[in-house]
Amino acid sequence: METKRTLFRDTDNKMLGGVASGLAEYMGWDVTVTRLVFVFCLFAVQGSVLAYLLAWIIVPSKYNSSSGLGFGKIMLLLILCGLPVILFSLMFGAMILGMFATIL
């Protein structure tokens, strides 16, 4: 009979968030090889940092299955996703104010 496998972050064997070590355990791979693949993807695949951060936020910890999406992690996600929008809004608003200042 086959046992049910579940993906968890391995917080005992982590370097950052435990995503790579949890994925290695889930797939039955070597942790070092999995981490090297993550580092390669960091430089070769666009959006891999965001994918890692989302996995860090969404995938629950191995020893605390309720630690998937906590308030602190949701706030971190909102800050990381909202920061470019806020910076763009401030820059665009300053440009508009500058245009009005030159007209007046």
Could you characterize the architecture of this molecule?
This protein is mainly alpha-helical and 104 residues long. It has one domain. Helices cover 64% and strands 0% of the residues. The chain is built from 4 helices and no strands. The longest helix has 33 residues. The chain is elongated and about 75 Å long. The relative contact order is 0.11.
What are the key terms here?
104 residues, mainly alpha, 4 helices, 64% helix, elongated
Mean pLDDT over all positions: 76
Look at the helices and sheets and give the structural class. Answer: mainly alpha
Low-pLDDT stretches: none
Multimer state: single chain
> How far is the N terminus from the C terminus?
79 Å
Number of domains: 1
Into which percentage range does the β-strand content fall? under 5%
Indicate the overall shape: elongated
Topology at a glance:
Layout lengths: L18 H9 L3 H14 L3 H11 L12 H33 L1
What is the structure about, briefly put?
This protein has one domain. With 104 residues, the protein is an all-alpha fold.
